[in-house]
Write a structure and sequence with these properties.
Nucleotidyltransferase, domain 5; binds iron/sulfur cluster; 19 strands; 16 helices; single chain; six-stranded mixed beta sheet; alpha+beta; GIY-YIG endonuclease; 543 residues; 4 domains
């Protein structure tokens, strides 16, 4: 019995269906109110004629299903299965930023604050996501300073007999040695929650009241703490975008797509002011726009941390009321989807749309570059696409005033803050190999903890490559290497050598991949020569 025949026997019940490929891999997960009807529609000639469906069906070797009690349950299961199996024909949700959250471990009587990349479904509260480790750290810094929340681990807390330095420098109220009561500490924590949820105006009001109460009770220490916290929050409020968009917490969500690339841009409005913006890059599979929006909302809110009261959108997602219900259940308060045509909400939506358009334009531009990096990675036998390239070159005059230069390129562009110059210490005779060995050892020995390049390029042929391999091996690093040598004749293209291969790598002359490596090498050459000249001039003229 072929697949089409088999689907005629599917139950007429709600559930989730899974399209599987030759090796049983899951290609697509969908949900249905009526499994037989929905799955059968894929195989009817009058069914879905989107081109992606054609490819999906061509690759499908079997279809499985899971019956659920309700459509709502099917929707939740679908979302879980997509997250788990990442089927290639479903949308692939990729955030353009790495996720960092501030965690407050509520399971402890005196909860501490920390930064994490992995929110878990335990009793903790999570705030964020934050764009960078620096932004999250700054928030923790402010919180410990103005709200006196502990940042030690639970184990440190349990083992203290005296307060630590953080208390001495005014960064912790020292609950470990009972310098603050549990109730008072809980009050500080609720301020932190208001602060991190963007409810700054409300918090200022609360702190002002508490400051005057503390003054009345002659608790000047507490009054001063409140005053400092008010100052810090007011500064933050001033720096914040002051355009008002109502007074509640909303997300304005706009989508823009081209081909299979789709960007969803979210403007986060908290207490009426824009507090952040995030872009998500999706690889759209067989779903149409309303289905993509539905899956996006479920992924963002059912598994995310903060749920606003409203999602402002240009058009309704599929299963709108079901999504509203599921998200409301998860949030514990009413969540609704609104589609404004004018007014403040519409304006903020247009802003999100503008962002989505810009970001998509940017992504499409980058796509061409990404293809070059991917091709180059394959040519150089790397397992992951190249993003960061460093290149080393040596310059000297007969071994004197020798310098080694390392340049760094990120996404094909010079990353000048990571350029380095090394004055050669060990040699005054012309031995480029030994100089390169010294430079590589110094550069990477001192930076073992830092982010390494995806590949280190050396200027030269097999000899230079062997020297670099020795240095890297002695450092115990697994740093990928390649060497770039000038063609033997003027009209011959440059040659690329990699470890474990006698012949040069087959890269076409004038290909974008080769031109990129030449650009990096030429920049290393230029940088080395100018550093060498400076050193030489300094010596000649005693500058
Ligand atoms: S003072 Fe106590 S509670 Fe505060 S950070 Fe130090 S050890 Fe932790």
């Amino acid at each position: 019995m072929n697949i089409k025949e088999r689907t005629k026997n599917f139950p007429q019940r709600p559930g989730v269906y899974l399209f599987k490929g030759l090796r049983g891999e899951i290609l697509y997960v969908g949900k249905a109110k009526n499994l037989r009807k929905r799955v059968g529609s894929y195989f009817r000639s009058s069914g879905d004629d989107r081109p992606q469906i054609y490819f999906l069906i061509a690759k499908t070797r079997s279809v499985d299903f899971i019956v659920t009690d309700s459509e709502k349950e099917a929707l939740l299961l679908e979302s879980t299965l997509i997250k788990k199996h990442k089927p290639r024909y479903n949308i692939e949700l990729k955030d353009d930023k790495s996720h960092l959250y501030i965690r407050i471990g509520m399971e402890h009587p005196f909860p501490g604050i920390s930064v994490t990349r992995r929110p878990k479904k335990e009793g903790a509260k999570y705030f964020g996501p934050y764009d960078s480790a620096a932004a999250a750290r700054e928030a923790v810094e402010q919180i410990t300073r103005f709200f006196q929340i502990r940042s030690c681990t639970d184990r440190e807390f349990a083992n203290r007999v005296r307060a630590c330095l953080k208390h001495d420098i005014g960064r912790c109220s020292a609950p470990c040695v009972k310098k603050i009561s549990q109730d008072e500490y809980a009050l500080h924590l609720s301020d932190v929650a208001s602060f991190l949820s963007g409810k700054k105006k409300y918090l200022v009001g609360m702190l002002k009241k508490r400051m005057s109460d503390a003054s009345a009770k002659m608790d000047y220490e507490e009054a001063a703490r409140c005053r400092d916290a008010i100052g810090m929050i007011s500064d933050a409020l001033e720096r914040q975008n002051v355009i008002r968009h109502g007074s509640s917490d909303n997300d304005a969500i706009a989508m823009e797509s081209e081909g299979s690339d789709c960007i969803i841009s979210v403007m986060e409005v908290r207490s009426g002011a824009i507090s952040g913006q995030r872009n998500y890059h999706l690889k759209c599979g067989v779903q149409d726009a309303p289905e993509v929006l539905r899956d996006f909302l479920l992924q963002r809110y059912v598994e995310g941390s903060f749920i606003p009261v409203k999602a402002i959108m240009e058009s309704a997602p599929a299963d709108r009321s079901l999504v509203e219900k599921i998200v409301s259940d998860r949030s514990g308060k009413k969540f609704s989807i609104s589609i404004p045509k004018k007014g403040a909400a519409h304006r903020i939506l247009m802003l999100a749309l503008e962002n989505a358009r810009e970001f998509l334009r940017f992504k499409l531009m980058r796509k061409e570059d990404d293809a070059v990096f991917e091709k180059l990675s394959k040519k150089l036998a790397l397992i992951s696409p190249i993003q960061k390239i460093e290149c080393v070159d040596i310059s000297n005059t007969g071994g004197r005033e020798a310098v080694g230069a390392i340049v760094s390129f990120l996404h094909g562009e010079p990353d000048k803050k990571n350029y380095r110059i090394f004055n050669i210490r060990t040699l005054t005779t012309p031995d480029d190999y030994a100089m390169m060995y010294e430079v590589i050892k110094r550069r990477y020995a001192e930076n073992v903890e830092r982010e390494m390049p995806d590949i280190l390029l050396v200027d030269g042929g097999r000899g230079q490559l062997a020297t670099a391999m020795r240095a890297v091996e002695e450092l115990g690093l697994s740093l990928p290497l390649a060497a770039i040598a000038k063609g033997k004749k003027d009209d011959e293209p440059d040659q690329i050598f990699i470890p474990g291969r006698m012949n040069p790598v087959n890269i076409k002359a004038k290909s974008k991949e080769l031109l990129l490596l030449m650009k990096v090498r030429d920049e290393a050459h230029r940088f080395a020569i100018s550093a060498h000249r400076r050193r030489r001039d300094k010596k000649s003229f005693g500058k």
